């Protein structure tokens, strides 16, 4: 009897769905094929997941392949991040694949006695310009700009605590300093076009509010955001529904009203006035001041280098973002086709400054999928002094590349403000994983440096990397990107500093790493929450 009622109820439900499909006019597929047509929409909905876990190969998927995600996940959990039985990459035919050339002999190698795998920056941030609060960053790997509002409170908390534990800088993003950025990490505060956290009641830049914000937190540097790789040259709109009392208070905007971010700054209008603005900020705060930008038309960079050549005004650092798109949601055309990809964009900017002999005066920071060791090594060889990681850091705290960042339905609570989804992310556990990932990336960079025969990744040069051109042909990194002799390398004084603070040795013994690996396995075997 119960079975008969169940079957009857199911039949009635399907009949109702069929009738609704037949009379509705919005979807031709469902009107012509009632009930069955729903399968198409279901398959479309779960298609990304099917491709991610079943259809695509280990090296096929984008933005991050399964192998890349696996390496990040394993690294963040202190699991075995080795791969067995050879590479999944078609190494002889993959266009653009980078090959790092190891050396048989070396004079100086990195120390292997540092359990935290510390890698300080080769350059003192703000040192060449004599900033009052110039400093040498303690890590070449740092957490990139991601605002509270785009990421959840628990995600920002986890990243900040992880950065603090790993000794990294944490960029606030343009959404100002939130309570979740105040969990121990030193900060780079970002100033965007809407001047969140440092704006007056009319939305204009306010120096006094900036100084108040800086005084309230451990801020080490200021970054002026000109554009980002996800949507260069495009403003943004924070809809009224997302302007909660908390976000309104943090950003200094009216609660419950749409807030537009202009596409360009109003505090300056050209390179000359921008440099005046930079020098004013540095004078008023004592902090190093830099810019972040994707790379498009080169006139901006050429004028910037020309105006910095007399060494009277200048930015302390330049963060180059790749046009491949990043954590920010964006129109497809902007993610796919606006601004140059990272390697091409960075090499053009670096070359512009190298032509005038200015590269030792500026700290160059790379940002665009550089949280993977091979990409990071190429960035250092091209002349980057530090790298910022964003999506890789998100993966380390639980992101599964669902690509729902723009929908507020992130299933792992990373890129959403939905309280139910946010609660699924444990900030204490994920902070530990973020810290382990950041340290592991530094460890990999140290090991690669040892293989190349240098004590620090900033000493890896274009001569140490070849780019495969397909069909058994390779070109040097320098020839691919038009570098001249000496480009991408530190000057003699900076090289001497690196050799001094890295305490290089004559050998690199990895037995210490094996001991740490066994200790990690022992901890994993112990009972308790994971």
How would you describe this structure to a colleague?
It is a single chain. With about 525 residues, the chain is an alpha/beta fold. It is built from 18 helices and 13 strands. The chain has helices at about 1-25, 30, 40-55, 65-75, 155-165, 205-215, 245-250, 270-285, 300-310, 330-335, 340-355, 375-380, 390-395, 420, 425-450, 475-480, 490-500, 510-525; strands spanning about 100, 140-145, 170, 185-190, 220-225, 235-240, 260, 290-295, 315-320, 365, 385-390, 465-470, 475. The strands form three sheets. The protein has an eight-stranded parallel beta sheet with strand order 2-11-10-9-8-5-4-3. It has a three-stranded antiparallel beta sheet with strand order 1-12-13. Strand 12 (about 465-470) and strand 13 (about 475) form a beta hairpin. Helix 4 packs across helix 15 and helix 5 (about 155-165) packs across helix 15. Mean pLDDT is about 85; it is low at about 515-520 and about 520-530.
How can the largest sheet be summarized? Answer: 8 strands, parallel
Give average pLDDT, whole number.
85
Helical stretch count?
18
- Report the count of strand segments: 13
Features:
single chain; 530 residues; alpha/beta; eight-stranded parallel β-sheet; three-stranded antiparallel β-sheet; 39% helix; globular; disordered C terminus
In brief, what are we looking at here?
With about 525 residues, this protein is α/β, with parallel strands linked by helices. The chain has 18 helices and 13 strands.
């Amino acid at each position: 009897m119960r079975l008969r009622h169940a079957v009857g109820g199911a039949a009635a439900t399907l009949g109702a769905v069929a009738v609704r499909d037949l009379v509705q006019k919005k979807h031709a597929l469902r009107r012509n094929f009632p009930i069955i047509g729903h399968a198409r929409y279901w398959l479309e909905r779960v298609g990304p997941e099917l491709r991610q876990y079943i259809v695509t190969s280990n090296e096929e998927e984008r933005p991050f392949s399964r192998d890349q995600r696996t390496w990040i996940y394993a690294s963040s959990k202190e699991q075995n991040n080795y791969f067995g039985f050879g590479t999944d990459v078609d190494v002889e035919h993959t266009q653009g694949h980078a090959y790092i050339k190891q050396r048989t002999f070396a004079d100086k190698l990195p120390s292997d006695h540092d359990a935290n795998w510390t890698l300080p920056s080769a350059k003192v941030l703000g040192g060449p310009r004599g900033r009052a609060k110039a400093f040498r960053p303690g890590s070449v790997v740092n957490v990139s700009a991601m605002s509270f509002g785009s990421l959840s409170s628990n995600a920002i908390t986890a990243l900040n605590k992880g950065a603090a534990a790993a000794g990294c800088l944490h960029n606030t993003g343009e959404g100002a300093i939130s309570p979740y950025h105040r969990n121990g990490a030193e900060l780079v505060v970002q100033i965007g076009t809407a001047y969140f956290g440092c704006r007056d009641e009319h939305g204009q830049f306010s120096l006094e509010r900036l100084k108040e914000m800086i005084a309230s937190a451990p801020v080490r540097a200021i970054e002026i955001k000109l554009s980002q790789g996800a949507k260069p040259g495009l403003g943004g709109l924070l809809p009224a529904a997302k302007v909660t009392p908390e976000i309104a208070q943090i950003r200094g905007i009216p609660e419950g009203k749409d807030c537009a971010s202009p596409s360009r700054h109003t505090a300056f209008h050209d390179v000359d006035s921008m440099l005046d603005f930079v020098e004013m900020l540095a004078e008023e705060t004592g902090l190093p001041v830099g810019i972040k930008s994707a790379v498009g038309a080169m006139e901006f960079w050429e004028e910037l280098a020309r105006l910095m050549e007399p060494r009277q005004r200048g930015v302390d650092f330049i963060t180059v973002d790749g046009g491949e798109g990043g954590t920010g949601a964006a129109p497809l055309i902007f993610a796919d086709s606006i601004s140059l990809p990272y390697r091409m964009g960075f090499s053009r900017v670096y070359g512009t400054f190298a032509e005038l002999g200015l590269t030792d005066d500026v700290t160059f920071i790379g940002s665009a999928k550089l949280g993977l060791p091979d990409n990071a090594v190429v960035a250092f060889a091209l002349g980057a002094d530090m790298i910022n990681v964003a999506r890789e850091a998100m993966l380390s705290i639980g992101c599964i590349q669902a690509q729902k960042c723009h929908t507020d339905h992130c299933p792992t609570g990373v890129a959403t403000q939905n309280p139910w989804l946010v609660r699924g992310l444990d900030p204490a556990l994920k902070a530990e994983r973020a810290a382990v990932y950041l340290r592991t990336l530094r460890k990999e960079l140290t090991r690669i440096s040892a293989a190349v025969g240098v004590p620090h990744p900033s000493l890896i040069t274009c001569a140490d990397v070849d780019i495969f051109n397909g069909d058994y042909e390779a070109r040097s990194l320098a020839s691919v990107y038009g570098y001249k002799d000496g480009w991408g390398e530190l000057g003699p004084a900076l090289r001497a500093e690196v050799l001094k603070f890295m305490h290089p040795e004559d050998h690199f013994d990895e037995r210490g790493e094996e001991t740490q690996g066994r200790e990690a396995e022992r901890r994993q075997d112990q009972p308790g929450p994971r």
